[in-house]
Amino acid sequence: MFMNTVQPEIVSIFSSTGSNPLGLFGTSCDSALPSDSFIHLLIDKTSLPVPPAPAVPISPPIGEDSDASEESGSSGLGLSQRVLHIQSPTLRTTYIRCPPYDVMHSEHASFPLGLTHPWVHIQVRDLGREWSFEIGLVDRSGHVGIVRLSTFQKEPRLNLSTKPSSPPILHLPLSFPPISSRPLTAWATVTLHLPTYLPHFGSSSLLPRGTQGPLTPASLPTSMPTAFFSHTSYVKVYATCRLRRIWFSQGGPSKKAPWEFELYGDEYR
């Protein structure tokens, strides 16, 4: 998509308040669960408009402070902005993906995302359900590895597929502040420095228990990403969460993002 284009310092691939938020994405829902599996744009603070029937959105978790909960309808402060609500009890079947799958629905899109920025930022709201997202990384040799972060994952794991066409998956745990800690907002910006994950694809300590033999350079599959970071091949966000924005940048969290990337709630009263 962006491989052969001039790439500015910051590239936003998703904004829930844009005129066509999912213009670069493909979407998937579980057709067997029409009331529980759906993707819908709504105002975060009010959860309106409601999705078309038979979809029934879950309510955000309620905080301990009854006054704040009554005002915001959730733990922490809700946003007075339109966001994307992704909901399903089956994470694997409900997601958005950039770029979309090709017509053959293979695990690799015909044209990779191709962004060379080392940092990715995802503004997300915890809905108290399991949530996961993954990013495809490509090294300078053209080898692909998948970094997946999940709230249900307990410890880092490196999963190697027996299929030559399936990239290795580095599965990492992800957590949000508990409601009991009374955070100021239920929203968070997850920031990843992508090049730092590539060396872990060669770590034998992350292999599942029972894996036979040490993971040495000679025993690594030829398709393992072990060289320097080149670009991102795709971004995939699963249920269940709310999304505000996804963007890539040349600078990390210490570099201030543009003002329009900020999260806005009601004026303090």
Automatic annotation (TrEMBL):
The UniProt record lists the keyword Membrane: no
The UniProt record lists the keyword Repressor: no
Q: Where is this region: Disordered?
A: 54-77
Coiled-coil regions listed: none
Residue intervals of the CFA20 domain: 79-159
Q: Which UniProt keywords apply?
A: Cell projection, Cilium, Flagellum
Quote the InterPro entries the UniProt record gives: CFA20/CFAP20DC, CFA20_dom
Q: Where does the source fall among the domains of life?
A: Eukaryota
Q: Name one Pfam family in it.
A: CFA20_dom
What name goes with this protein?
Answer: Cilia-and flagella-associated protein 20
